[in-house]
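Hi Prof. W.,

I finally got the Carboxymuconolactone decarboxylase family protein prediction working! I wasn't sure whether to trim anything, so I left the full sequence exactly as given:
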Amino acid sequence: MDPRLNYFADPTAGKALKHLMSLGRELKNSSLPTATQELVALRISQINGCAVCIDMHTKEAAAAGEASVRLNLVAAWREATVFTEAERAALELAEQGTRVADAAGGVSDEVWANAAKHYDEGQLMTLVILVSLMNTVNRLNIITRQPAGNYEPGQFH
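And this is what came out:
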């Protein structure tokens, strides 16, 4: 599959994407655990069907030491016993934040309160920005049919 566009061939798009990628790097420096960030990014990408981001976040998580069983079970996290309660809260918030068109009320008060039990305000802010960023990047990749499979861990860091 060939991509419809090369974002970095256009100066304006290239600059915009560099800013998006720098936002992602800043989030990595937050106190929200890296494992949680990668699991959330992977789950959002699965929901949206973004192969490029599934490739990237699976490989980044594995390079950071994430167990393959957890990566393989992200799509079925509700039934899997390998995730902490905090990770479950983050995954639920990420799903509701991604499926806003399906859930007329967006993220429910119950889901928000559960996440707030496990994460402080700074971590919640990181989680909200991460959910928004991943949905943006997923759409950019899907619309332009960016191919997956060649990502190398650390490629954009």
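Helices lie at 11-28, 34-48, 51-63, 68-73, 85-98, 109-118, 121-143. Does that look reasonable to you?

Thanks,
D.
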